[in-house]
């Protein structure tokens, strides 16, 4: 894995001539969690998909660069709200999917270490349909880690989980993805306040940076400053939508 | 419960059939009753078995060839835009042609024996197999493709590891349809020209006013189709279940 770079997204996007987002500049700090918080339809997922090099249906004018000048799209790992586990493959096969898709031999020892780290060793040979929502997201996280990429793009990966499982997953992901340049796209102010080392609110009017709480991420769910930040973020979201 | 309701439906159908025969007093060469058909079936069981065997061979070979051809075609269509543009309209056009009209032609080309019937069965199932598998291949959940893209997968690996497995349930439903259609194809082939098979037996019995034997052969074909459908259903259960 190359060292995690800064990432800069600079440009504007439109769909069928209608502006999706006006010119903006988003900087993701190297080795940091950046939370991009916004309501539905403001284009936050588009920003993430542009970085990943995926189809967006939008026309993007601008550039996406890494501070080390190396190409971006081949250094990203991607995790979405849908766990995207292949239902016909076992947990172990899902975790090592990337290598199989590239025609490489998967590093089985590493795979097993990651599965153990995600506390999934009893589920190795199971199909995804036999797992709970939280377990499935842990498999998806193990698959993301297996890719070992310096840039990790998370598109609301925890939003379909119940509150307790979501908090557990946030802790696990924050710990596991330390040192990588992470973009977390979310609509949950609480999540942004817990995890963001840098927090940016995206509304129709553009990007507004917001100071993260002082405590190191992941912050405690009942940390007062984190709760205050959560409130402030929600207010910004509501004002931005008005 | 499932078997019980099937049994009840069968008894109900037989009762209606018998009631029509008794109430109208139709002569037995017009409409034989269920009891007479059962008796005729039992008396001719070896004759019927012999012809069923012939039809079964035609159907099974037809199913195998039709499935292989359909799968290959669907893969080519899914892989190449040129194939879609050039071949797809032709496929639809061949479906618009009445299969009956082709049967004499196939007999002319392939002769009186087994292969013209196999070809008929292949023709009739080729389209449902091709189109169902092709639809499945083109409808891979986009999230899987996004994920594969970020993993730098080659198109070949995506086809093999993601698109084909994701399309197997569609192929399974195409094969189940084919199991019902294939016997129809084989029998049409037999009607147009043959010296054996259930279709031939039906035609023969009808021509000699042995309506009871005609019914016995027809019902045997029906039962054969249902059994074949059940076997294919069982055989494709894993394929169909894989996209839970």
What is the CATH topology of the domain at 7-83 and 150-241 in chain A?
Answer: Rossmann fold
Number of strands of chain B: 0
Enter the CATH topology name of chain B: MetI-like fold
Q: Which of globular, elongated, flat, extended, rod-shaped describes the shape of chain A?
A: globular
Count of helical stretches of chain A: 8
DSSP strand count of chain A = 9
**How many H/I helical runs of chain B?**
11
Q: What CATH architecture label of the domain at 7-83 and 150-241 in chain A applies?
A: 3-Layer(aba) Sandwich
What oligomeric state is this?
heterodimer
Give the helix level of chain B as a range of percent. Answer: over 70%
Radius of gyration of chain A: 18 Å
| CATH homologous superfamily designation of the domain at 7-83 and 150-241 in chain A | P-loop containing nucleotide triphosphate hydrolases
**Sheet of most strands of chain B:** none
- β content of chain B, as a range? under 5%
Radius of gyration over C-alpha positions of chain B, nearest whole angstrom: 22 Å
**Which class of secondary structure composition applies to the elements of chain B?**
mainly alpha
SSE ordering of chain B: HHHHHHHHHHH
End-to-end Cα distance of chain A, whole Å, is: 43 Å
Write a structural description.
The complex is a heterodimer of chains A (242) and B (244). In chain A, α5 (133-147) runs parallel beside α6 (163-176) and α7 (189-195) packs across α8. Chain A has a domain at 7-83 and 150-241: P-loop containing nucleotide triphosphate hydrolases (Rossmann fold, 3-Layer(aba) Sandwich). Chain A has a 6-stranded mixed β-sheet with strand order 5-6-7-3-8-9, with helices on both faces. Chain A is globular and about 50 Å long. Chain A contains 8 helices and 9 strands. Chain A has 242 residues and is of the alpha/beta class. Chain B has one domain: MetI-like fold (Orthogonal Bundle). Chain B has 244 residues and is an all-alpha fold. The longest helix of chain B is centred in the last third of the chain and has 38 residues, at 155-192. The model of chain B has no long low-confidence stretch (mean pLDDT 90). At the A-B interface, β5 and α3 of A face α7 and α8 of B. Chain A: Keywords: ATP-binding, Hydrolase, Nucleotide-binding, Transport. Chain A: Residues 2-229 form the ABC transporter domain. Chain A: Its EC number is 3.6.3.19.
